[in-house]
Amino acid sequence: MAHSNRAIHTVFIYTLLLASLCLADHTIRGLGHYDHHHRLARLDASNNTSSTSKSHASPSQVHTATSGDSNTSSDAVQTTTAYMSQTSGTQGVSTKSFAATIVSTASSSLPSSSVATSANAPSSTSQIPTKADITDIGTISQRRITDIIGALSAQSSAGSIPGWLSTLGANGMWPASEVNYTAGCAAQRANWPAQTHWHRITIMAAAWHGGLTNATSFVGSDALRSAISSAVGYWFSNDFTDDTCLDSGGLPSCPCGTPGLWNPNWFSNAKYVGQTCLMLNSTLLPSEVDGCSRMILRAYGTFDRYINGLGYITGANTLDMAQVGLDQGLRAMNISLITDAYARVHAEVVIHQTVSSDGIRPDGSFGQHVGILYNGNYGKDYLNADLDLETEAGDTQFAAEIASKEALATLLQGDLWMIYRNVITDVLHWDFSVLGRFISFPVADKQATGSINFNISEVQQLANQWQSDALLEVVDSLQTNTSDANSGSIVGNRMFYANDYMVQRGSGYITTVKIPLEFTFSDGTVYTYLQGNEYEDIAAAWDWNLIPGTTTDYAATPLNCNHTSWTGVQEFVGGVSDGEVGIAAMRYTNPYTGSLRLAEAWSSRKTCHDRGPAIWTNAPVYSVLDQKRHVGDVYVDGSKVHGSSNFTSANLLWHGGVGYALHSSPLGTPGLSVETGAKFGNWKTIGISAQPNITIDLFAAYLTHSSQGPVAYSVFPATASHEAFQHKQIQTQIRTVWNDAEISAIMDDDHSTAMVVFWDALGGSVTIPGQSILDAPVTITADGNSAIMYHYKTGNITVSDPSQTLTELQVALHVGLLGKKPPHWGWEFAKTFTFDLPTSGSSGSSVSQLLSNP
Hints:
Pfam families: Lyase_8, Lyase_8_C, Lyase_8_N. This protein is α+β, with helices and mostly antiparallel strands.
C-alpha cells in the first residue's frame, strides 16, 4: 500500500501489539470494548419486559411502559411528552442534552429524566412518538432486552450472585479483594478492573428482571433489587463531575488528584449502565434515572467532536456508542434519540473507501485505529453490535437499507478467510494477524484469542430476516465440520489489498501472510495452520525476535515501550490474486535501524517464498521459517535431529506436517538453524493477563543470511509424514526463474502459471523458459512496478500495482519463435495489454484480461 497515502498509518511494534504494558486499549471511556463480554448465545423472546411499578415487583407481575402494543390508544400517544435540550445542574454540570420524560396512560408515576452530560451532547427537539413509533419502540425494546440477557447467560453464572450479595458493603462497594476500585492516574489503563463493579450489577439486574439462565429464584427479588440500588448508588455518588476527565485524565485540565471514578484511558461502563437501566426501567428511582442519563448521554455526546488521544469516533466505537444511546432512547421512549442512534449505525455500516479508514473496507477487511487490520477484535465487536442492532430493528422503521446489508455481507465474507478451526478443541479462532495486540492474551482469558466470539446462529437469524444468500453461505461454511484447520474447507487465494494481507487455503491447511509497510507483525509474518493449535498460548514464551515468516536483523530493534510505532519507509507493498493463486510482495526497510533493506515475495503455489537481497550492519539477519509448538520428530535432509542444531548446507527440513525445500543460489545454500525445547513464559511481561506462567515445548527454524545474495525456499504444508514430504517435493515442479533486486519470477509448471514481481518503478522484462526444450519461452514485460500472473492453460493475465501509485499498466507478452506455443496464442507471437488499474478504496486490487484466441 502506498506510503504516500498512509503517512499517518502507524502500526504498533510487538511491544505495543503485546499491548497493555505500554499503551492501553484505545476504546471509548464511558463506552468502549470490554472483550470478556460478547454474545455467544441468544435466548428466545420470553420474560424480557420491564415492570413499570416503582416497587420491586417481579417484571412478570406488572405492565411494561415500553411494550409498544400495536393497540395503544391515541390518547396514550397524545399523553407521551418528550422534553429536549433540558438543562440540569446535577453535580455541578449544566449542559444541554437528549432527555425525555414519559407520561403515559400505562404508568403516570414514572420519574422524569433530569440529566447532566457533556456540552457536546446532541441537542435537538424530539418529536412526540406516534402510535407506529410506540409499536416499534416496544418491539425493539423486547428484542434488545432478550439480546442483553442472552449474552449474559452465555458468559456469566448466576451462581455467583449469592456471594456478591453477601460481600456487598453497606456503602454499595465490594471488598477490594474482589473489585479493584483504583481510579485516576493510578488505575490500570486497559480493561479497568473497577468496571467489574458494573458488570456485576448488570448480571444482577438481568437476574432480577427474569430470563437469566438458572436465576429464577432472583426474579423480582426485593433483596436483590435493593442491593442493585446500593451498588448503583455508590457509583453514581462517586462519578466524576469534571467532564474533561472523560478524555483528558492526567492532563492539566483533569490532574491526577481530581476526585471521582475515572480512568486515564477509555472503558466500557456506559454500556453496562445503559443495559442495567433498560432492564430495570420504571423501577428506577429518580436519582438512578438521573445517574443513568448522565453517564449514558455524556458518552453519547462525544459523537462529532475530537476526543483527546483518539480522534473522532469511528468504526466499532461508533456502533458501541450507538447501542448505548439506543438503550437510553428505548428506556425513555425518546424517538429522536433512537432515530439518531440508528442513523449513525447505518451511516457507519457501509463500505469505507478512504485509504487507511476505519470500518469495513471494500475487500472485506476491517480497520480500526487509522485502518489497522482488526477483523478479529474490533471487527468482531462491530459485527456483534450490528447483528444485535439489525435483528432488533427487523420489520421496523429502523431496518437497514441495502448499502448496510451489502457492507455487512462483505465483512462476513472477508471474515470467513481469516477464521481457522482448532481441531483439538473444536473451537473456531481468528488468525493472529487480524488480532493485533490481543495476541498478548491466552485463550483462558476469553478475549479475542479465545474464539471467534460471535454467534453463528444470530448470523443465520439475520440472513433469514434479510433473505440474504450471502449471509447463509457464511453460516453454512462456519458450521461445516472439518478434520483440519481449514474451517469450511475453503480452497483458493484471497488478497486483502486494503490491508496488505493474503490468505491461501488448501486441502488440510491455511497459510496467511501479513505485509503492511511497518514493523515486526507487519513485515512478512506467516502463520501456517494444520491442526489449529500451532500458535495457541505461546506468545508469552516464544522468541519475539523470531516472528514466523519474517526476515529480521536479530535484536537490532529495542523491545521496549519507547519504540512502539512507526510509519513505513517503502511504497511497494501488496499483492495480486485471481482467487485461486496469488503473490504477496513488499519492499522493506527497518524503520528504526534503516540498515535492513530487502524485497520479499511469496507465491501461494506450495507457498513458495523468494527473498531479495538484504543490506545490514552488524546484527545477524535471519529469515524465519516458523516458530510454533513442537510436536513429533524433526528431520533435516532425512535424518532426525534433537534439541538445537546448526547446518551449513541443508536442503530439506520437515516438522509437524510442514516441509521446507531450501533453494540454492550462486552464493550457495543459506545456513539453517533448528531449535526445540522447553521455553518459559510470563504473561504479565507482555500484557495484562493474570494467567499463570507457562512452560511450553517450542520449535523454531530460521535461515542465516551470510551474504547480500537472495534466499529462496518452498513450503509444503499438510504433508502427513517426512516420507510424504520427500515424495511431494520430488514430484513438484516449481522453478525459480529470476530473483534479484529488480525482478522476482517463478514458474509453477504443475499449474502452468508464471508469477512475476517487477520491483523497479519502470517495470522490466523477464523470459520464462519452456518446461522442456519442445516448449516455446514466453517473455513478460511491464512498464511499471507490478505483480503479474499468467496462467498458460486459461490464457488469463492478472495484474496489480502493490505501490498503489499507478492508474495504468502496459503489459506485453512475447512467445518464442521456436517451440510449442502455450494455448490461446493462435498465429500471433506478441500481444500487448493495457490495464486500467483501480483507484480510491480499491487501489492495489487485481484486474484480469484474457488472451483473445480460443
